[in-house]
Amino acid sequence: MITESLAVFLLAIAFDILLGEMPARIHPVVWIGKLIAFLRSRVTPSKAGGIVLALIVIAATVLSGHLMVRAAGYVPLLSLLVSAYLLKSTFAIKCLLQVSRDIGLMIDRDMNEAKSMLPALVGRDTSSLSKSQASSAVIESLSENYVDSILSPIFYYLVFAPLGYGLEAALAFKAISTMDSMVGYKTKGLKEIGFAGARLDDLANYIPARLSIILIALARPASASTALRAALRDHNKTPSPNSGWPMAALAGALHIRLEKPGYYVLEEDGNEPDTSDVPRALRLMQTAIALTLAAALLVLFFGPICSDLMPI
Known about the structure:
The mean pLDDT is 92. Strands 1-2 form a two-stranded antiparallel ribbon. By secondary structure, the protein is mostly helical. It has twelve helices and two strands. Strand 1 (258-260) and strand 2 (264-266) form a beta hairpin. It has helices at residues 4-19, 28-40, 47-72, 78-88, 93-109, 111-117, 131-160, 166-183, 195-219, 224-234, 244-254, 277-309, and strands spanning 258-260, 264-266. The protein has one domain (4-309). The protein is globular.
């Protein structure tokens, strides 16, 4: 039996893998970004203003998505397609893997071009990075974005799907994540207004970040114990309370030293990363993503069956 939640999820995955990212003019995340930019210049630049911004952005995102699906329900099958379209916008499997692969290849071919491409993945200064440091940056971002751009939205979809609000939960997460990426910085003008978005993002990613180390470990069974030990040992070395978990687990699984110069070092006794480690990291993370999707499908398929079998 294919439930509606399962059908929406399958279609969303198909959209992502086959079509990739949508054009900017019809991308829901771009719309969220425009709303954040509009509100940012109009709310008070304070923590209170940031809370107002966060509440409006989350409410508008969830309500808009809900109403779009409801309106599409008057046309047969259209609500299913709209739901899948909106759900796909909350995660980016093909895009993350492709961008990481492209930059990894460019590090070998043209370091200057690679440095100009890296800001698509990382927020650090790339001008003085060596090939090893650039490779580390790609691998770090790949693992961190696995949580933020794939695992977390799927996690919230699964948690709230039995209540009929899986899509709304995934959209709410994406609104929070987009706010954090746009205003969640400790710089002048953003520290106060971005505080609410940044804290909500930390909270929303808390459980998925810790779940990620299990999936990363399972993706490379021969190094599972090393990955878990590295995550437990090094997760608190990063400024973020969440990003250190998947990054340290991946560093341990591959036994490579990941470093953001001047900020942190993970798996300190590991090998210096080079460009050949980017494809290794991609293969491991592709397996982790496949495990994530397989687990999600099992939950969506067997969850309703198990509920029906439970005694009243």
